[in-house]
Amino acid sequence: MKTPIVEIDGDEMTRIIWADIKEILLKPYIELNTLYFDLGLQNRDKTDDRVTIEAAEAIKKYGVGVKCATITPNAQRVTEYNLKKMWPSPNGTIRAILDGTVFRAPIMVKGIEPLVSNWKKPIVIARHAYGDIYKNSELKVNKGSKAVLTVTDGSGCVVEKEIFNFEKSDGVICGMHNTDKSIASFARSCFNYALGVKQDLWFSTKDTISKIYDHRFKDIFNEIFENEYKAEYEKAGITYFYTLIDDAVARVIRSDGGFVWACKNYDGDVMSDMLATAFGSLAMMTSVLVSPDGKYEYEAAHGTVTRHYYKYLKGEPTSTNSVATIFAWSGALRKRGELDDNAELVAFADKLEQATLKTIESGIMTGDLALIFNGKSTKVGTREFLEAVASNL
Ligand code: NAP
Ligand code: MG
């Protein structure tokens, strides 16, 4: 490998799996070249969380990173790890620095069928992770109140618009916003990602009802597509398709999959949970952060699997699913290979994924999958699964 991959280590059970994947599935087969950042909670505390910022800056510089799941501390973790303070979510910090969008992609395997029987290919969902109700101002209001939207522009000019006159009842109001800059970054991340995987891009809002707010999203997407991506999409044989969110939901359910679905913040929050459940298991979901200028960070969508880690610490056997973490590595290796014209590395990434799927299809899997597998299965331990993948590899 010419250029290093930015390697971001993490916490608990996924940290154990991380080291095992490198030892069993990567180092024996490839000259692994990584720039290592330890985002384990102890080291984030020790470095006053500087290590998180350095890791994000390294992804900006080198273009491809792979991240292990990390603990986002709450009050209980502050006590457990004797932390200096309640450090923010590493994913939040990295996302803010890269200005990126998260794409969640299910890993499909024969024997674990989606609950929606016509889905034959993965549906990747992208959530705009800025603004709307997630950064709102809301109030309870009393009967007799009148709510007015007031905007003062840079020159002191005031524009007012009535929201509602609460003559007859108490009620609630909410003010929210988004920025053209954030919407445009989201749009470019989506157009880049879909182009990279050569799949159609769908985008949906409620622009028929929200004729200014949601319509702005539609217009910005359309403008960027026409000016920057149309020709490339035609060349790649893929399309950009806008439709109303209600129509999108109906089409998604009736489709056979194989496209990228971009959603506004709230729609993405809800629909990503719906898709994860319908595709079978959170442990079979990968996640990629893509910045508008084409930097990539791959990870598993699940957390650090704390309950399994406590068992591991007690010396009890564990059967934790490593598939999403393996696919985070294969995703990063493939992208690095593509960027460096390293066909061997791309081929290795493909083989690693095939070996993993083949292992499950042959009936060898961790406990979580054995419960939902359609066929005869043998439940194996965390490490045994990786060794079985290695023998297929
Ligand atoms: P979690 O680690 O995803 O685990 C929740 C439960 O889902 C597990 O207890 C387990 O169920 C099942 N599960 C998840 N991944 C699995 C796997 N790979 N193999 C088998 N079973 C799996 O979520 P959490 O317990 O809510 O959070 C734990 C920690 O992870 C928290 O400190 C949180 O901050 C962090 N977190 C990090 C990220 C990230 O870095 N991207 C994302 C989410 C959460 P059973 O116990 O029933 O077996
Ligand atoms: Mg959600």
The number of helical runs is 14
Q: How much helical structure, as a percent, in the residues?
A: 40-55%
Q: Could you report the average pLDDT, rounded to the nearest whole number?
A: 95
List the uncertain runs: none
Structural class: alpha/beta
Biggest sheet architecture: 10 strands, mixed
Task: State Rg.
Answer: 23 Å
How do the SSEs run, as a string of H and E?
EHEHHEHHEEEEEEHEHEHEHEEHHHEHEH
Bound molecules: NADP nicotinamide-adenine-dinucleotide phosphate, magnesium ion
Please give the order of strands in the largest beta sheet: 2-1-3-14-13-4-5-12-10-11
In short:
By secondary structure, the protein is α/β, with parallel strands linked by helices. Helices cover 45% and strands 21% of the residues.
Question: What does this protein look like?
Answer:
45% of the residues lie in helices and 21% in strands. The chain contains 14 helices and 16 strands. The strands form four sheets. Strands 2-1-3-14-13-4-5-12-10-11 form a ten-stranded mixed beta sheet, with helices on both faces. Helix 13 links the parallel strand 15 and strand 16. Helix 3 runs parallel beside helix 5, helix 11 packs antiparallel against helix 12 and helix 12 crosses helix 14. The protein is globular, with a radius of gyration of 23 Å. Magnesium ion binds next to helix 9. NADP nicotinamide-adenine-dinucleotide phosphate (NAP) binds next to helix 10.
What's the helix and strand layout?
Elements lengths: L4 E5 L2 H15 L7 E5 L2 H6 L3 H13 L1 E4 L7 H6 L9 H9 L2 E6 L16 E5 L9 E5 L3 E8 L5 E9 L4 E5 L4 H18 L2 E6 L7 H24 L3 E5 H10 L4 E5 L1 H15 L5 E6 L5 E5 L5 H8 L9 H17 L3 H19 L2 E2 L1 H4 L7 E2 L2 H11 L1
Parallel strand pairs: 1-2, 1-3, 3-14, 5-12, 10-11, 10-12, 15-16
Antiparallel strand pairs: 4-5, 4-13, 6-9, 7-8, 13-14
Helix pairs in contact: 1-14, 3-5, 6-7, 11-12, 12-14
Bound molecules: NADP nicotinamide-adenine-dinucleotide phosphate and magnesium ion (MG).
